[in-house]
Predict the structure.
Amino acid sequence: MPRWSYVWLLITCSTLAPASGYCSADDAGGAETEAVQMVLEFLRDSDRDIRGLALEQIRGEWKGEAFTRRFAEELPRLAPEGQVGLLGALADRGDKAARPAVLSLLQSGKSSEVRAAAMRALAFLGEADDAPFILPALWAETEAEREAARFALTRLPGEQVANTLLAKLDKATDEQAPVLIRLLVERRDGNAVPRLLTLAAEANLVKRGAAIAALGELAGPEHLPQLLRLVLTLPAGRDREAAEKAVMFVFARLPEEPREIALSAALSGFDEADQRILLPTLGRVGGKTARSKIEQALLSRDSAWHEAGIRAISNWPDGSVADRLIELAEREEHPSHRTTCLRALIRVAPLAADRDNAGKLDLLKTAMRLSTRDDERLLVLQRAQAIRDVETLRYLVSFLDQPNFAQEACNSIVELAHHRELRDANKPEFEQALDAVIRISRDPVVVERAKRYKKGQTWVRPKSAS
């Protein structure tokens, strides 16, 4: 019989597959046995199309554990390319009867592609006990294996997987710890929070930083007293600020009323001295309770409390404090306090939900008026790009003839031009501004973007290096 006749026979024989989907291969009739043998034979064929036809049969026909085991038994007999294909088909079947064969191939496979395919299959077919066999591949030589290991360890079922990751974390190197902690976050494993709280307070800066970031995603309201205690124990600087943001993220997941209740409850366990140190954290959280305590601190004659109030209101998460920041930036006695409030105003101006774009731009213009140094003025121009309005474009264009500010104005103009709807609605003005950017900018990327936007083309921002 010609070769393609066998292919037609295979397609025809697929109609013999048990309609119920569950039939023992040992009980199958002769025609079924012949068709399954043909599928197995075609798996070893050198023609990719023939192999693809066999894989489709494995995915969609011949249901039941006995057939799954029969197909899985072929794994060690195939070439690497065939093994990768069959592993994918077995994963699509979703039948865990294939698990032992897949796990065996992971442990014995000599090909990186095969090991990666086996781990991806275990993401759908594996069990928690498989995690220790996958774990070493997180640091394999090839990215394909590392990515497959992350994929599998994120999706394997069972709490024991997290226990495996935590056990490895105890002896992890600085390279390994962030990878393991990130996996715990991706698994959304709240049971890891106690261990992460311990790591967040340890001296190792790498583990500490990764643990604090993870707490912002995994911790719940019940962990708030411990998170606030963590803020108190960390030295002032980057890690304390990261811990403050972790607290903010936990509160942000709560509706407004429960958030106020949770904040009051969490603070009740701290004395006055600790509450002063925690005030900047409250500023990040926002809300009525925090604002009331911050205003009390701002009115205090105690310099430590007043300074804490300045830091707290400057951490506020939205633009509702813009007017208060203007007042403080104008009237504060200490120059450093005025600068802190001015920079906060620049940050929150585009976030003022109670103002339209014109009002937000007015806030930035006020910040420009209050600025006494060029670095502050440059921040205003950089922040302006967040206000997507033609009036912002006109404001930025006015700085193109000022050498100290022209380059930052160019950057913000192309950021505004990135938004096609704004650009197309004001095409003549944008074309004129982009022509100026092309003449003035010293940044080749900015110039290239300006040229593309003039032509109506898109530009894709490069992904940040991981």
User: Anything to note?
Assistant: The chain is about 70% helix and 0% strand.
